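Long-time lurker. I teach an intro course on protein structure, and each term I like to show students one example going from raw sequence to a predicted 3D structure in token notation. This year I'd like something fresh instead of my usual example. Would anyone be willing to generate the tokens for the chain below so I can use it in lecture? Attribution to the forum is fine with me.
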Amino acid sequence: MPEIKLDNWEKRSGEHQKQYKNYLQRADKNKVLKQLPDLHDEAFAKIDCLKCANCCRNYSPRFKTPDIKRISKHLQMKEGDFIETYLRLDEEGDYVAKRKPCPFLGEDNYCGIYDVRPSDCERFPYTDEDVIIKRPAITLKNSSFCPITYFVLEGLLQATSK
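-- Reply from a regular --
Happy to contribute to a lecture. Here you go:
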């Protein structure tokens, strides 16, 4: 496995955005998908999401209909009340959290609804699925605030340069 430095990762990620973009545009999807499981697992072994929580502090997942049904039931709220209390429609017509940080993020960076969290949260940062290639704009944005996405992209770049 490549040695990927995590100190100053935000700065390096900013400096590497062009490289990431070029890589994602020309990458062999099948080769990338073969490399993802190991890079994803290594990233999660080295990086503690609970020390970061940048995703929960600065961005909102989409709350899709099944998410809204599941979460409102868990909170013992009517769906309409849940939407009115916690959500708003964004520019793309998706329900997102009304405020930042996420209203369910605790002081300890634990999620208050972890077991019923939105599917976007469960899948984030998409570093073990084809979203990393299929939606390069999302991947690039995620690499600017998520050290795991940064780590996986750096690993993919290093593997290419060998």
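Some talking points for your students: The two ends are 12 Å apart (CA to CA). The chain has eleven helices and two strands.
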